[in-house]
Write a structure and sequence with these properties.
Elements (H helix, E strand, L loop, with lengths): L3 E6 L20 E2 L3 E2 L1 H10 L4 E5 L5 H10 L9 E5 L13 H6 L2 H7 L3 E6 L2 E3 L3 H9 L6 E9 L7 E5 L5 E6 L14 E12 H12 L8 H11 L3 E5 L16 E3 L3 H10 L27 E3 L1 E2 L2 E2 L1 E3 L2 E2 L4 E3 L2 E3 L2 E2 L4 E2 L4 E3 L2 E2 L4 E2 L4 E3 L1 E3 L4 E2 L4 E2 L3 H5 L3 E2 L5 E3 L4 E2 L4
Parallel strand pairs: 1-4, 1-6, 4-5, 8-12, 14-19, 17-20, 18-21, 19-22, 20-23, 21-24, 22-25, 23-26, 24-27, 25-28, 26-29, 27-31, 28-32
Antiparallel strand pairs: 2-3, 6-11, 7-13, 8-11, 9-10, 9-11, 15-16, 30-31
Length: 412
């Protein structure tokens, strides 16, 4: 596995995740109590022992850079690194104009490393993947210049992805970028399409030459899906890796192929709720595939009071360190570090991202509370969505979102 450079695209603005992305880039959004979204792709590379990684940032990158500096530092070994690279406008006075342009503006990093293979992965999905297996698949095809990871998704979601057609040898023979109508379904599987995961393994010389040629085209939007992939697959040199075949030691069979694009509030909420199943589709507890992140110096979670109608308890939930459940009740919810639930309060089907303080006698249901939100005693959220819409963002699926640092109920 020598000669491999990895570049993670972590500059996404994430407008569909607003207001959670009003202060941070999409990959920096908290997830699962202890993590940020970007932790999953970084763990995939680290657990695959691929440790020459550039992380390309752009929009509202401070939170992401701070997180990486606290946890994702590799020191002492000169050939191993995880380096965040802010947008530097190397090719002119403009931000990255597309996913391909993001790599092109940092092409000197690729050429300076002189790799054989370059992995270009997105930084904003929830999944586990042994990246080595995809690279081995790529190298097993002598004529492969690019390999694209793919996964079946329902046809209703086709307009959100690049849709792929393949032949019997896994070679790409068709590609539609986010088709609005008539997407090509998988033969023998009506109602399903084969979607690109936005994860690519390139021969380094192919990547460099393709990006340089694309940069010269005035009609290009400089995007891998719109421009680079269509050109290469027509030359017959693009293969497709079936992500569902990827195996990880210690993983249960039912977790195979789990991948979530958490690009909307509802998909982020659902992915968090996935973690709470008795046998979740993604396992955070596999000791053979540790999920690293920054963990602050906090004490263990504490549950206090055991009286009638005032029992500190959490059921079917994940509670992070530093939390205090003080005579309140938590059901089917995730609490980030240092959250405090006061007496006679119920939190149900919700995600609290950390540093939250929920006063006495509150009822919180189907809500996402960003960091450091404080809720006044007696406040009710999630039971009357029309009323909630007057104060907060409510997703199409009925999830109420409270922005970072908000103080709710103190102005009544």
């Amino acid at each position: 596995m020598s000669g491999i450079l990895s570049m993670i695209l972590a500059g996404g603005e994430g407008t569909r995740l607003a207001p959670l992305t009003s202060v941070r880039a999409k990959p920096a959004v908290p997830f699962g109590g202890n993590y940020r979204i970007i932790d999953f792709v970084l763990n995939n590379f680290v657990n695959s022992d691929l440790l020459q990684i550039f992380v390309l940032t752009q929009f509202k990158s401070h939170s992401l850079m701070k997180h990486m500096s606290r946890r994702w530092r590799v020191t002492g070994l000169t050939n191993r690194f995880i380096d965040p690279i802010p947008a530097q406008m190397q090719m002119g006075k403009h931000w990255y104009q597309g996913t391909a342009d993001a790599i092109y503006q940092n092409i000197e990093l690729v050429e300076g490393m002189d790799p054989e293979v370059v992995c270009v992965f997105g930084g904003d999905h929830i999944y586990k993947m042994d990246v080595r297996q995809m690279i081995e698949f790529h190298r097993s095809h002598d004529d492969a210049r690019l390999t694209v990871a793919a996964i079946p998704v329902p046809v209703e979601q086709a307009d959100q992805f690049g849709i792929i057609e393949i032949d019997a040898n896994h070679k790409m023979i068709g590609f539609q970028e986010k088709p609005k109508s008539n997407p090509k379904t998988i033969p023998g599987r009506p109602g399903w399409v084969l979607a690109s995961m936005g994860n690519y393994v390139f021969e380094a010389d192919t990547l460099v030459s393709s990006l340089r040629a694309d940069a010269e085209r005035p009609d290009s939007i400089h995007d891998f899906g719109h421009n680079i992939i269509p050109e290469l697959f027509e030359a017959g040199v693009v293969y497709v890796y079936d992500f569902s075949t990827n195996t990880i030691r210690g993983e249960a069979e039912h977790t195979s192929g789990y991948w979530r694009d958490v690009g909307t509030i509802d998909s982020l909420f659902e992915a968090n709720m996935d973690l709470l199943a008795v046998t979740p589709p993604i396992d955070l507890y596999n000791r053979h595939w540790p999920l690293r992140s920054h963990h602050p110096a906090v004490p263990p979670a504490k549950f206090v009071h055991d009286e009638a109608n005032r029992t500190g308890q959490a059921i079917s939930s994940m509670i992070s360190g530093g939390c205090i459940i003080s005579g309140g009740s938590v059901h089917q919810s995730i609490l980030g570090h240092n959250s405090h639930i006061h007496s006679y309060t119920t939190v149900e089907d919700s995600v609290l991202m950390g540093g939250n303080d929920i006063g006495r006698g509150c009822r919180i249901r189907r809500a996402i509370l960003d960091k450091n939100v404080t809720i006044a005693p007696g406040t009710v959220i999630g039971e009357d969505l029309e009323q909630d819409r007057q104060r907060f963002h409510v997703s199409p699926g009925g999830v109420v979102v409270i922005p970072k640092g908000a103080r709710v109920g103190f102005d009544d």
